[in-house]
Amino acid sequence: MRTAKLSSKSQIVIPAEVRRRLDLRPGDVLRVSVEGERMVVTKKSELDPLERLKAFGTGRWSEAEEELERGRTESPKQSGKANQLDNQ
């Protein structure tokens, strides 16, 4: 475990080894939280978790979303899927 000293301006220097390992660069945004008696510093991703999830699914799930939407408005017989399901 590495240590860091708090300056008179309440700043800390993240040890070089930690910066390299986490690929921290000048200007990166870090999140600071308190867990019990610990301060936890984590690198904030450019997108929040929900946005990352949305970005991951871009294009991949659009066909499935379309199918789900059709299923809400059509019965299997209307969509032509009834026979496909029966033949599986």
Record the SSE blueprint.
Blueprint (H helix, E strand, L loop, with lengths): L15 H7 L7 E6 L2 E6 L5 H9 L4 H12 L2 H4 L1 H6 L2
Antiparallel strand pairs: 1-2
Features:
88 residues; alpha+beta; two-stranded antiparallel ribbon; 43% helix; 14% strand
Order of strands across the biggest sheet? Answer: 1-2
> What string, H for helix and E for strand, traces the elements in order?
HEEHHHH
Instruction: Compute the CA-based radius of gyration.
Output: 25 Å
Helical stretch tally: 5
Number of strands: 2
Question: What share of residues are in beta strands?
Answer: 5-15%
Structural class: alpha+beta
**How would you sum up the major sheet?**
2 strands, antiparallel
How would you sum up the global shape? Answer: elongated
Distance between the termini: 57 Å
Overall helicity: 40-55%
Unreliable segments of 5+ consecutive residues: none
Give the averaged pLDDT, no decimals: 77
Structure overview:
- Helices cover 43% and strands 14% of the residues.
- By secondary structure, the chain is α+β, with helices and mostly antiparallel strands.
Q: TL;DR of this structure?
A:
This protein has 88 residues and is α+β, with helices and mostly antiparallel strands. It has helices at residues 16-22, 49-57, 62-73, 76-79, 81-86; strands spanning 30-35, 38-43.
